[in-house]
Amino acid sequence: MLDIGPLELVTLVVLAVLIFGPDKLPKMIQDVSRTLRKIRQFSESAKEDIRSELGPEFKDFEFEDLNPKTFVRKHVLEKDELGLKEIRNGFDLKSEMAEVADAVHGRGADAPGAAPAGSPAPAGGPDLLKKPGKPAVGERPPFDSDAT
């Protein structure tokens, strides 16, 4: 209801009683409701006049279609004359990323032991997301010349 919360509604009612008084308030409410009814009737008759002037080819015309979001949703996204849904469904990000990972690791799609597209990396390969374990006693940690 126009983003009016209960507290604001109570505040408006109290202000209306204070401004107009309890005697005039019912008459004011009747006048406001009568005015709103007349405005609604006027807008409906204007819509009907416009529909009748446009002719039979616009019999299913809705004024909500004039909203840009509704227009785009109805005429562009629902008809899909450009084949956007087919393009969107044909793009598989997981398989594309698996192919890139295979190319980086030197595994070809036809190489023996290569994982099929979309499957996780083999268990024997390096897991780059895990932290490396501590080296054994007497073993030197790996040296990274770029890090020093």
UniProtKB/TrEMBL annotation:
<feature type="compositionally biased region" description="Low complexity">
    <location>
        <begin position="109"/>
        <end position="127"/>
    </location>
</feature>
<feature type="transmembrane region" description="Helical">
    <location>
        <begin position="6"/>
        <end position="25"/>
    </location>
</feature>
<keyword id="KW-0811">Translocation</keyword>
<dbReference type="InterPro" id="IPR003369">
    <property type="entry name" value="TatA/B/E"/>
</dbReference>
<comment type="subunit">
    <text>The Tat system comprises two distinct complexes: a TatABC complex, containing multiple copies of TatA, TatB and TatC subunits, and a separate TatA complex, containing only TatA subunits. Substrates initially bind to the TatABC complex, which probably triggers association of the separate TatA complex to form the active translocon.</text>
</comment>
<keyword id="KW-1003">Cell membrane</keyword>
<protein>
    <recommendedName>
        <fullName>Sec-independent protein translocase protein TatB</fullName>
    </recommendedName>
</protein>
<comment type="function">
    <text>Part of the twin-arginine translocation (Tat) system that transports large folded proteins containing a characteristic twin-arginine motif in their signal peptide across membranes. Together with TatC, TatB is part of a receptor directly interacting with Tat signal peptides. TatB may form an oligomeric binding site that transiently accommodates folded Tat precursor proteins before their translocation.</text>
</comment>
<keyword id="KW-0653">Protein transport</keyword>
<dbReference type="InterPro" id="IPR018448">
    <property type="entry name" value="TatB"/>
</dbReference>
<feature type="region of interest" description="Disordered">
    <location>
        <begin position="104"/>
        <end position="148"/>
    </location>
</feature>
<keyword id="KW-0812">Transmembrane</keyword>
<keyword id="KW-0813">Transport</keyword>
<comment type="similarity">
    <text>Belongs to the TatB family.</text>
</comment>
<keyword id="KW-1133">Transmembrane helix</keyword>
<dbReference type="Pfam" id="PF02416">
    <property type="entry name" value="TatA_B_E"/>
</dbReference>
<keyword id="KW-0472">Membrane</keyword>
